[in-house]
Write a structure and sequence with these properties.
By secondary structure, this protein is an alpha+beta fold. Helices cover 43% and strands 9% of the residues. The strands form eight sheets. It has a four-stranded antiparallel β-sheet with strand order 1-6-5-4. It has a three-stranded antiparallel β-sheet with strand order 7-8-9. The relative contact order is 0.13. It binds 1-deoxymannojirimycin. 1-deoxymannojirimycin binds next to helix 21.
Amino acid sequence: MVLRKLPGVSASGMGLRLSQKFVFLLFLSGLVTLCFGALFFLPDSVRLKRIFLSKNESPAVTVGSDNELSKKVPVDQEHQRTGLKGVEANVKPKVSRKPSVTHGARTVERSVGSRAQDEWSPARAHEPPARDERVTSAALNAQHGTTFSHETFKKCLLKPALGKDQGNPSDSETLKRREKVKEMMKFAWDNYKSYAWGKNELRPLTKNGHIGNMFGGLRGASIVDSLDTLYIMGLMEEYEEAKEWVQNSLDLNSNGEASLFEVNIRYVGGLLSAFYLTGAEIFKQKVLELGEKLLPAFNTPTGIPRGVINLGSSGTSWSWGWASAGSSILAEFGTLHLEFVHLSQLSGNPVFTEKVMNIRKLLNKMEKPHGLYPNFLSPVSGNWVQHHVSIGGLGDSFYEYLIKSFLMSDKTDEEAKKMYYSAMDAIETNLVQKSPGGLTYVAEWRGGILDHKMGHLACFSGGMIGIGADDGPAGQKQHYLDLAAEITHTCHESYSRSATKLGPEAFRFDGGAEATATRLSDRYYILRPEVIESYMYMWRLTHDPKYREWGWEAVEALEQHCRVDAGFSGIRDVYASTVSHDNMQQSFFLSETLKYLYLLFSDDDLLSLEDWVFNTEAHPLPVIRQTCLQEHSTKPDDGQTRLE
Ligand code: DMJ
């Protein structure tokens, strides 16, 4: 239209006036600028960015300061692009979602379904998916021509996965205790099977199933979480039922909104360990398919994933509505490393490792207040959003994954090692406290002010500090072992000071309190594993019989207060001698609490710590011995399993 000659106007050159040419050129250059800008600003243009940015130039921001990307794409603008104007990142979206989630997770301080954080309310900070990275397993195989041999992998284990004799303990008393734990698992499983088969969790009082909306429409969380526990306990009939369900009924084509963290630790972790333990191809196929669905979550300006992802083809992601200013949570984006490295290991596709290494690099570079890692980070600007630090809820498993990444890399991942020990240093300097009564605890930190509280979730740290004792700075081993033992002792105190001998969700060390809950809302116990997890590690590291005794106390308390007619249930007040049940058998009770108890009463060669690290949901993942794997690797024809 601009080119049409206007009547009565003399033309020059190609029949256009100079001014017309000028207008045309102006329009053209505007168009070019617009297209070029769009290439950079549309989140779907990762590949194009790569063309224009040099290889080492990461699109992630320089952290710790006001940065370019946050200036270019303010949060509000992001919302406008999606037509979701005015939704502040820390304000819940208008569309209200029912808080039907009662899962426990270290990332969220949950009550039994009542706290604000429990609500399923992702802030709408939408990013389209990185479709270029959502390739199928078949495409992956074609692309990478990779092979993974389960046989070769087994050759690189130092011990048989299940030990010489399935971990049978030599003394009869311990064997009896182990049998009791196995019976508890069977009871929990049988009831789940009778009343909630295919649902995510069992409601043991009302004898029905719970689906919730934590897993984006995925079902069978208790089944996937139980696979490895059933297998190591030798509950083979039950394991076969579970495997068959995964084969025939685990439908990954869901279109719901899922917690990236929860799906990763329970489903990805559960399927990975089931594959490594059994070699059954179905688990590998499923986990690679699921892994691909999680990739779009990383498609943010910094590569730090948001907490909530749509598992359908849109691949959109959101930040939690309750999280400060649309931020991502340290314990969520920091608890992907182990699983994602294994996804790359099995698929041959480095993209999974690249995603988590980017998170690692970014965190490593950032300025940290007093060397501490705050719990909230903006996935847009890459800056800390709030200075709340905790080794319990919201922070916890980030630290766990640093030391476990080092151990899982066959102690080659120096960066993870360095980050872990520096973080430990900062935690010891700033957070570790001794109560007037002589109990060691890890306080929380809010912008420099200590909150003298320890969550049940933070009790995993006894075990973590224990497994990290060997590789710290010279001369520190005994110090770390002592610290681990002291924290585990404190957590045991939180159990033994209650009427039920089970520990509260959080306990305090102020106002005269010593390892007891002072608020009504902190008195519940939802079958969490962390204290028992630390007993298990401390037993393996020290063989001090008290850890087995403490584990047995927990078994007795669970039997007395949590066992009901149709399964196990959490309780609302650990200090009340007549308990009130919360009607939920959490899937982590089967994957973690009962597994750690079983390991506590087994010989050390059942899932030896030399060969296995446990993800934060207690799913064992093998140490990757790259040199050994390469030495043993043969041509595909010589027995390697090709990815289909
Ligand atoms: C589990 O899902 C995992 O251990 C997670 O890291 C924290 N919360 C629960 C158990 O309490």
